[in-house]
Specification:
With 147 residues, this protein is an alpha+beta fold. It has a single domain (18-134), classed as 2-Layer Sandwich (Alpha-Beta Plaits), CATH 3.30.70.1290. It contains five helices and five strands. A five-stranded antiparallel beta sheet has the order 4-1-3-2-5, with helices on both faces. β2 and β3 (68-75) form a beta hairpin. α2 (38-53) packs across α3. The protein starts with 6 loop residues before the first helix and ends with a strand.
Length: 147
């Protein structure tokens, strides 16, 4: 019988590098479409923008889907990955409601040779691939510095 991975296994081998660029995906609890609500989505976006001002993480691109977040960012020089993501999840939970997020998150460290603009385009095109809209410009909950 195949065992399903537990969220604690997601952290196994996780390495955080200050100044590193990461693509993080965080999912709402039970995949509830919390962010289908415009105000809830905008509150989360406000938290992401707040992170930039705190000099802990510089957002490069994001898309807030109804039941998850894709976030491309560069860690600040004094921040570690897990506490950074946890702060975003905690701050958004305080604004939107408790039990907002599923435990854990998926992350991918982006290498220097990776094409950041292409990754950003892939992220913001998520609503089109999901069939939510037929053009990126019709979806209100994304941003990217290269698009």
């Amino acid at each position: 019988m195949e065992q399903r991975p537990h969220t604690s296994h997601l952290r196994t081998g996780r390495y955080s590098q200050s100044g590193g660029v990461y693509l993080v995906t965080a999912v709402t609890a039970n995949r509830k479409p919390v962010f289908a609500d415009f105000d809830a989505a905008r509150k989360l976006i406000g938290v992401l923008h707040h992170r930039d001002y705190a000099d802990r993480a510089a957002t490069m691109a994001f898309v807030v889907m109804p039941d998850h977040l894709h976030w491309l960012f560069q860690l600040g020089n004094t921040e570690a990955l897990s506490p950074c993501v946890q702060r975003v999840k905690s701050m958004s939970s305080k604004l939107i409601g408790p039990h907002l997020w599923q435990k854990g998150f998926h992350d991918r460290a982006i290498r220097r040779e990776d094409d950041l603009p292409a990754i950003a385009r892939y992220i913001v095109a998520n609503p089109v691939r999901a069939g939510v809209v037929n053009r990126v410009g019709l979806y209100p909950h994304w941003d990217a510095i290269w698009i």
